Fold:
Amino acid sequence: MSEQPLLEVKNLNITYRTERGFVSAVQDVSFTLPKGASIGLVGESGSGKSTIAMAVMRLLPPNARVTGQIIFNGTDLNAVNDRQLNRTWRWKQLSMVFQKSLSALSPVHRIGDQMHDVLHQHNPQLNESQRRAKIDEVLNAVNLPQRVIRSFPFELSGGQMQRTMIALGLICNPPFVIFDEATTALDVITQAQILDEVKRLKAAYNLTTMVISHDVGVINATTDIVAVLYGGQLMELAPREAFFKDPQHAYSRALIDSVPSLYGPKRRITGVSDWRTASSSTVDQLRSDRPAEAADPNAMIEVGPGHFVRREGYLGALEVAS
Amino acid sequence: MSESQHLIEVTDLQRYYPIRKNLTDFARGKSGEVVKAVDTISFTLKRGEILAVVGESGSGKSTTGRLLVRLDTPTGGSIRFDGQDVSHLKGAELKAFRRRAQIIFQNPFEAFDPRLTIGSSLEQALRIHDIGSTPKEREDRLIAALERASLSPAREFLMRYPHELSGGQSQRMATVRAMLLEPQFLVADEPVSMLDVSVRADILNQLLDLRDTYGMAIVFITHDLAVARYVADRVAVMQHGKLVEVGETEQIIFNPQHEYSRELLAHTLEV
Structure:
């Protein structure tokens, strides 16, 4: 594990300046992503998961204030100037597959022309035929027929459009790709196909990925590390297997329990709004056992190898320090 | 009293859409080929029963839902509702049928007129169907309905505009509106697929409670088999406009007979 991680996010805080004062979107989020691994950010709308992705891509609006570090391959991206960012980093090193493919693609340009544009912008040294070869390659990689080059976005199905977005994400060979709710709008069968393709591409191109979803099923199917976010804060950070076997935070458990099971025993599912009440006994116990840690509800406690849980809401009992 | 115990009997239901290939055909109103959106399906639904209709995009499940509440007219076959053939109702008879059969849609953000307050939208539904004689009486009814759905303070919710509601609140409000007319039958077309997981449970439980309290029959359209299993007594699987399998929920989940049902199950992500 001495190898340098591909992405390291340290104490990330994001605040928006609005007419009604400052609004905090992300608070003190830290995680590390080794090369070749995949992290899943899971949480509800407004939990800050897309904001973190946009911060990594440096695509936040001007009224956002970002503190903390986003270290990509040894470089703090927050310290890179805009010109450098566009030349060397964005799309060549990090790319993103956006949630709404229909609005992400230009409705009045053919798919092929949009792909040429991306290559022209980021790889100006390529000539026409090299660009064409590259486009053919990525279309093949995502199983799209060549005729898509001549198509307009409205002529494609939802699945084809999402494949087009993935092809665009891969077109400059970045080692790191963010998938932001890439399969949310698709039906189960198309979703399964796209997720399979993402897995295959990840192996073929040796990608490191960040998958953003509100669907714990998608996270379980595609990632190695799970980060649970709520209200802009990290609740739990854990290896996937440990997480799904035994989630240690009240909110994580509520999130998993809010989804009906296909094969498991039938039980009444509940919303996740009341997770705080579920964990209050642990907090009370903490107050008496370990006053120092109880004082800081935001402390992240390490409960297993690579497994961190926010103190407030932690379901396990803390050992009393001897 | 009715000779049949079934509230709804669908027989050989069809909805074909003509494809007009060129302007000449269009002008002549002539069509050769058709798209068979719903292709000769039959099923029944009892009072108080929830039937989940599952399938991928384009399988015809939403078209079936629209036909059942007669937002669309079948091109063949029949729908019998409580013994009466409703497949070609018009005018006053159709309006009377609408009081008994309602629908809620997938996108809660488009369910209400953005220029009207929630209160005016809901009151309109009552006024159209001549429920309540005075504005005061109608308002009292609305407040009672909102409070039953735990949308309180009800009076304040009625004064809000649609954009001032969250997705979950909008969908609960759409369900309240559908229930104002005390229908015996409800079509829920993907009611939770656009909502956050955290509020999905509330909507699903609300529908289950409505069934338990009023004995309402529900057709629940979804592509998520785990959700189907949670709400439904029986499941109907659709593919390319055809019904490929219908059966008891547990039977379909644990012992699917049709290849396509198995494929759907295999692609459902389980935690």
